[in-house]
Design brief:
With about 350 residues, the chain is α/β, with parallel strands linked by helices. It is built from nine helices and 16 strands.
Length: about 350
């Protein structure tokens, strides 16, 4: 992992969103050196579990720079976080209001709005969020339970290359704002989530381009200028990591040439199962040919890509996989007794 790239990406977000609060989504890469680096730069953190919370606190992050935007939280986590001074939580159900009112009385809450994830490579919409009228109703119910409803959050899905996805989501948030304002509830915070893309395959809009587009629609839909929160994960750390793998086997099956690496979907490249693509390269020269690239386990699902163009390789040759700084080792397991790749920082 190149820590300098992480620092550069954090600076880019601060420059693109100068008035916003930046909260790193720890789930993208929970390596302590990354968290420590971002904490030293006064970045905030979004955590979803007691383990993530302990990590950021151990790295010196103050509670006022920590939030929890997962609307599905264990009661033990809520109670622990609240006792330690974390008072900002997302929710999207009446049951979550009950939990927060009991274990974090008086905390500040923001409702998760359901928005389309059609433009993202890794959709998140089906599991979370509520529609406009229900979101407004939940905010009012939270106020009635002595919680402090402060705003709205959403997520357009991970690796989203369409600026319009955020534009449409913000417009939908404005519909919620208009409903609750009729009940004298002011929206003081809008959390636009994460999903900012990196160049996995093909060009994507820059962070600045996305931010400029969003500022225009924010000026139109939220004239009172609520506080903006941003939760980048992949966009902060993804391009900082290159995974160096090794060829462990080769085969020809039904006319396809197969290349087996010592890393696969179960020990580092799980997102490939959902369609996330990686750039693969090698130091070897020669004519390129098409390979099916798979991992080392005995599971047939352990296939990274059906089409990668590489020169002729032999067992023991190295293949570099990029960008691999996000959602790789954090997803990995020891399935089949295969090791998780070690992380080195430079």
């Amino acid at each position: 992992m190149e820590k300098g790239i992480v620092s550069d990406r954090h600076r880019m977000f601060r420059e693109a969103f100068p008035q916003a609060d930046i909260f790193y989504a720890v789930k993208a890469n929970a390596a302590k050196p990354i968290v420590s680096l971002l904490n030293a730069q006064s970045c905030g953190f979004e955590v979803s579990s007691a383990r993530e919370l302990k990590l950021v606190l151990d790295c010196g992050a103050p509670p006022h720079r920590i939030i929890s935007s997962n609307p599905l939280k264990r009661t033990s986590f809520i109670e622990k976080a609240y006792q330690l001074g974390i008072h900002h939580f997302a929710f999207d159900s009446e049951d979550e209001i009950d939990k927060l009112a009991r274990y974090a009385p008086g905390c500040q809450v923001y409702v998760r709005l359901s928005v389309p994830n059609d433009e993202s490579e890794w959709p998140l919409g089906r599991k979370f969020g509520v529609e406009t009228e229900q979101a407004a109703r939940l905010l009012l119910q939270a106020r009635g339970r002595s919680l402090k409803p402060i705003g709205i959050t959403f997520h357009v899905g991970s690796q989203c290359a369409s600026r319009n996805a955020w534009v449409n989501a913000i417009k939908k948030c404005s519909e919620v704002r208009q409903i609750v304002e009729r009940h004298r509830l002011k929206i003081g915070m809008l959390n636009i989530g994460g999903g900012f893309p990196i160049e996995h395959a093909g060009s994507v809009p820059s962070i600045l381009e996305i931010a400029q587009t969003l500022q225009t629609v924010l000026n139109q839909e939220f004239p009172d200028n609520p506080r903006i929160s941003v939760e980048p994960g992949r966009a902060l750390v993804g391009e900082a990591g290159t995974l160096v793998s090794q060829v462990v086997a080769k085969a020809t099956r039904n006319g396809d040439r197969w290349l087996y690496l010592d890393v696969g979907v179960f020990n580092g490249l799980m997102e490939s199962m959902g369609g996330i693509k990686y750039t693969m390269s090698t130091e070897k020269d020669g004519p390129l040919s098409r390979w099916v690239v798979a991992g080392p386990s005995c599971d047939g699902m352990d296939c990274i890509s059906n089409e990668v163009y590489l020169p002729e390789l032999e067992i023991g040759d190295k293949v570099r996989i990029w960008p691999a700084g996000a959602y790789t080792t954090v997803y990995a397991s020891h399935f089949n007794g295969i090791s998780i790749p070690k992380t080195h920082f430079i």
